Amino acid sequence: MKLPLRGIPAEIPTGLNVTLTGASLHRMGTDTFTHTKSCMCGLGQIEATVSSPDHRWPSAYNVHWSYSIKCAPCSGEYMVDDHGLVFRRSEYAANRAAWDAWYKAAQDYEATPEIAGLKAEFAALLARLRTKKAAHEFLTLHGFTTDKYGTFTRAYRDAQSYAEGIHSSHAPTMARLLGKDPSPFQMAITALEAQRDAIPSVRRVMSAHPN
């Protein structure tokens, strides 16, 4: 997910080293500004470079930021993400690996035969509701949707496709409505939530973006 991009400042902020390069001499070229900040150890610099077309109508869609740590010790220990935020490489890698493991565990659970069988039975239950209005009322009552009826009718093609799209976090509720024991499904969901909550946080060291 990308944060909103910032346009080129109308005035160069004080306290920043800014270099204008490239294309202002060329019609419909590219203007490039390079801003620098001191790095974490104070012996080098972090560069933030912004490029945009040199016409009068730059927008968030054609303004590009890039970042680089110009210090060997700091570049080995720190990294700058796409949004200009500086993190320790070790913390960032541990956080990313933990999220990847959680996503895989969640996808694996979603693909289990138990979830597939539960959704098939739930689709049969929905099919017994004769109208979309009845299905909407039932699904709203039990927390499967918050959509207004008009929005719901555009998304609800048939009982089977709707049931297949229900997230596995609703498995305990589906089991209960089908007269099954929801506890095995609830235990699996609780385990996934615990795994997610144990993901180590990553602390922002600073912003490489111009102030």
Q: How many distinct folded domains? A: 2
What is the helix fraction of residues, given as a range?
40-55%
Q: What structural category arises from helix and sheet content?
A: alpha+beta
Shape: elongated
Average pLDDT works out at 86
The low-confidence parts are 1-27
* CA(first)-CA(last) distance: 22 Å
Cα-atom radius of gyration:
26 Å
Hey, roughly how much beta strand do the residues contain?
Answer: 15-25%
Number of strands: 7
- Number of helices in the DSSP assignment: 8
Q: Report the biggest beta sheet as strand number plus sense, adding barrel if it closes.
A: 4 strands, antiparallel
3D architecture notes:
This protein folds into two domains: 17-83; 98-197, no CATH class. Helix 2 packs antiparallel against helix 8 (183-197) and helix 3 (113-127) packs across helix 7. By secondary structure, it is an alpha+beta fold. The strands form two sheets. The protein has a four-stranded antiparallel sheet. It has a three-stranded antiparallel sheet with strand order 5-6-7. A hairpin with a 7-residue loop joins strand 1 and strand 2. The two termini are 22 Å apart. It has helices spanning 72-77, 89-110, 113-127, 132-141, 149-155, 159-164, 171-177, 183-197; strands at residues 17-22, 30-38, 45-53, 64-70, 78-80, 85-88, 204-207. It is built from eight helices and seven strands, in the order ββββαββαααααααβ.
